[in-house]
Design brief:
It holds the Pfam family DHOase. It is an enzyme of class 3 (hydrolase). By secondary structure, the chain is α/β, with parallel strands linked by helices. It is built from 13 helices and 18 strands. Helix 8 links the parallel strand 13 and strand 14. Helix 4 crosses helix 7 and helix 7 packs parallel to helix 8. The longest helix is centred in the middle third of the chain and has 17 residues. The chain is globular and about 65 Å long.
């Protein structure tokens, strides 16, 4: 059995908070030692003083199989993830058809295992067709490998049906993910309401719609006792409700997309559709509040919310264009903007990118402790580059960072100790 030793690396450990030069030994797909000398016959990787961290666990990735393989396949998503230091993808169920039956879940699980060089785990729909009316077979889906349950951006309007689904999920210990928006207010919105939206003549949604949706979901979580995760918190007005829920001891966590941490509503500029997202980009004050909430631990998870869209669906008037952006390959360099700005240290950043999502989902990844899976990323946090979207490995190229100056290059990615990406 091959022993691999990473020497002369900055070991970024989100569990202990350490960031110091050392070594790491892996064997048989797991981490076996820290700081040990390389045994005879070991493969030695000299990191040159660069950073070695646990592979990213990216929660909320859309892949186009089944139904939209032309936008993203398991193969292309896996290659993009490996190049971005993502070793575990948590895939969304908003496919065509939705992943709402054990048979569909088993199909995508098998396809992912065959095609992707990185790990892929699947969430399943909470309700049939993601329509918010009739719950799915949660128990059977758990048995088939569903890691969590969500209707993604389809916010249930039938609260009684939703409460029944949450109660049943609670009885099975299932994790439910909600999208915090008041559906009536947010319907048809293309941007956040305010002076900028008015000047551009775009239909907007008030930031209060997020708070209203979150307050409802948190009340249901309190009533049912379900394990609940808010997928994207993007406005400062939502934070007090989230803080109260945590202080009350509710089993609640929250995430935020990397785009809402690094971009704001003015980036839309003159109707740039690559910046049309769900939820829409917010004010600079909201962005700064989200960054602080991650630093404080109030928001637990940072994700790419990778949403591939083809050119035809983006090259439309802003109101009509598809929402979403790809992010598997840009998540780490974009997140390193927070590190370079002094908002987060590297250990804190990887806590939100890797450790917290793994812990919340009950996965052994996201850490560097002895016995943990050898899912690793070696990167240079200071390497500058200008992003060219046509060099992305995703089938779709809809990134808001096209032409942006970024810092941070992935040099190598390992899954179970096997190198799945090596930079040229």
């Amino acid at each position: 059995m091959t022993v691999t030793v990473f020497q002369n690396v900055r070991v970024i450990d989100p569990e202990t908070g350490n960031d110091e030069v050392g070594s790491l030994t892996i064997e048989g797909g797991v981490i076996t030692a820290h700081g040990a000398a390389a045994p005879k016959g070991a493969v030695v990787v000299d990191g040159g003083g660069l950073c070695l961290a646990p592979g990213i666990v990216d929660w909320g990735v859309k892949i186009g199989e089944p139904g939209e393989r032309h936008r993203e396949s398991f193969r292309s998503a896996g290659l993009a993830a490996a190049a971005g230091g993502v070793t575990t993808i948590i895939a969304r169920p908003d496919t065509t058809p939705a992943i709402d039956t054990p048979e569909t879940l088993e199909f995508v699980t098998r396809r992912a295992a065959e095609a992707s060089p990185v790990r892929i785990r699947h969430m399943a729909a909470l309700t049939k067709g993601r329509q918010g009316r009739e719950m799915t077979e949660i128990g059977f889906l758990l048995d088939a490998g569903a890691i969590a349950f969500t209707d993604v951006f389809h916010v249930a309007t039938e609260t009684k049906a939703l409460s029944r689904a949450l109660t049943y999920a609670r009885s099975l210990g299932a994790l439910v993910i909600g999208h915090s928006q008041e559906p009536g207010l947010s319907a048809g919105a293309a941007t956040t309401s305010g002076k900028f939206a008015s000047l551009r003549g775009l239909p907007g949604v008030s930031p209060m719609a997020e708070r209203m949706g979150l307050e409802r979901d948190l009340a249901l979580a309190e009533m049912t006792g379900v394990r609940y995760h808010a997928d994207q918190i993007t406005t400062a007005r939502s934070l007090p409700a989230l803080a109260r829920a945590k202080e009350q001891g509710l089993d609640v966590t929250a995430g935020v997309s990397i785009h809402h941490l690094t971009l704001n509503e003015f980036d839309v500029g003159d109707y740039r559709t690559f910046f049309k997202l769900t939820p829409p980009l917010r004010s600079e004050d909201d962005r700064l509040a989200m960054v602080q909430a991650v630093a404080d631990g109030l928001i637990d998870v940072i994700g790419s919310f990778h949403t591939p869209a083809d050119e035809e669906s983006k090259r439309l008037p802003f109101e009509e264009a598809a929402s979403g952006a790809v992010g598997l390959e840009t998540l780490l360099p974009a997140a390193l903007r927070l590190y370079h700005a002094g908002a987060l240290d590297l250990a804190g950043l990887f806590k939100a990118l890797a450790l917290n999502p793994a812990n919340r989902l009950g996965l052994p990844q996201g850490r560097l402790s002895v016995g943990a899976p050898a899912d690793l990323v070696l990167f240079d946090p200071d390497a500058p580059f200008v992003l060219d979207r046509f060099r992305l490995r995703s089938k779709s190229k809809n990134t808001p960072f096209d032409g942006a100056r970024l810092e941070g290059k992935v040099l190598g990615t390992w899954v179970s100790g096997n190198c799945v990406f090596e930079a040229n």
